[in-house]
Amino acid sequence: MAENRRVKMTKKLMKDAVLELLETKAPDKITVTDICDRADVNRSTFYAYYEDIGQLLLEIEDDALSQLPSFSDSDFLQGDVFLSSLESFFDYVRENERLFKILIIQHDSSSFNQRLVEAVMEKYSGLPRSGNSETDRYMYIFCVSGVIGVMREWISGGFVLSSRKFAEIVLRIATNATM
User: pTM for this one?
Assistant: First the structure.
């Protein structure tokens, strides 16, 4: 069922509220009352859309993952096109700095990091394979997990490198790791 504009706006207010709260509080210290006060909505409104705070956090994560740039199989055949695809991925992270800073660094959710690994691996499913699917899987998990670790540092450091330069470094690391 499609949400109307009012529902979308109300949910956005609650999502923004929980993100603001996560900047200063641990997730287990945030209450529904905190979110409602910050979003200026009633508790009944919160519960009309979410069973609990966990469900709201999951929806925030789902939103972030669903908006990750997609890659086509042809992107992996040309280095420059692939590099541009990586750059657009890192541009997305950079444009959503606050969200990724909260989800990857402050919130430090291992479940979000695992979901991010899976989402990226799904988007990169067009990568050339060695023929051994189990080996490929481990190599990709290693590479993607490493990229997330390096990306964490990139975010923490305030994006001192451009998205393009960071993509070049990531591509070089991934290429060396899979040789």
Answer: 0.82
